[in-house]
Design a protein that fits this description.
Structural class: mainly alpha
Distance between the termini: 87 Å
Number of helices: 19
Oligomer: single chain
Helix content: over 70%
Number of strands: 0
Order of helices and strands: HHHHHHHHHHHHHHHHHHH
Largest sheet: none
Strand content: under 5%
Length: 420
Amino acid sequence: MNSASSPTPALTDAPPPLPVGVAYDPLARFRRKIGENARYWRHLLESTPAQEEAGAVDQEFANLYKAVEQALAEPSAWEAGLDLAGALWPVVSGRGFWLEWAEVLGRAQTAARRLVRPAIEAQILDQRGELARFLGDAPQALDLQSQALALFRRLGDDESTGRVLNHLSQAHMTLGEYTAAQACCQEAATIFEATGNQAELAQTHLRWGLICAELTRWDEALGHHRTAEQIFVALEEVGGQAMALNNQGHVLRLREDFPGAIDAFERAMAMHGMARDEINEARSRVNLGIVYDSLGDPRRALALHREVEPLFRRLGDRPSLARVLNNQGVFLRDLGQPDAAAEAFGQAVTLHLQNGNNTYAVMTLLTLAQMRINLGDIESARGSLGEAEGLLAVLPHAPKREMERLREMMRMVKGEDRQE
């Protein structure tokens, strides 16, 4: 391939001499390549259209993960590694790559601290807190995000302070600390009203609405979600409007306004489709299925869940797939198919455990145990209850509702012992 005017160097040719006093570093080229690789992937993400980004990350996650991992292991590439990790967070957090990314964030925090980048370290603490909450460890989320909040307050970064307060509100809500949760939303709203950040203000109202729904304050919950929707309409943010409609459907379902819930979920699905967001469109479809089950139509609910199952399997979205399988177990149980229901519940438990989400695994196991008790299969029920008990024992903050369900069912199977 070389022309006559450009001869191939002889194998005996020596490399150019180094400057006097400079030691030869045979690994310098490889270290440089690590940083260049991370920057290449960062550029690729920037140039990928938003509607295609999630699919691209799914397809290339192994390569992206390796690029970040290598960059965070090489001090000269830390900056590039932190930049790539930050760019990947929105997709990673929404797709269920939680266990893998927890390790990445631990290394990223070390790099940020050693580079003395307190703002980046605070951002990573916040992200680690979000992962902890996703994985069922709300106390750890509270601890990590409280550290992030203190750092951002010290830096005087109001916008980031407001975002962390939004996230903290959900950790407090998960722990049943509703006064603290609402206080977080109130302060975040005050910050974003002052800074004029309407998009973040809308996110605050979405979270505030969820807290009000937990407290069965339906009108307040709907008010917050509708306020969020109005803001997103003004911003022409279709995806945000869809999320607000989905949340309204959730509240309407809880207050048993099923026609209103169906309308909200169907509108959310249409808007997610407009935004080419097939993932959230599928999640709204799951919610719609739950409404139909509440209306006594488990067959239609099952059909809607089975429509989206292949998508979540293809994407490897384990949290959403686990939820879908758990719900399918409920519908199959109600349709008189206990063996198929047990299979679906079992797959859901496996996925929850792979995600590190012991709390959700316990919830599914207890539902399975109740079905087995109702069928008179006490021995199998004991097995499910024993597994649930073991998982609850290692949770740092076991949910009270699930503990009470476990104790009640334990009493039921002991009662069966006395009858035998």
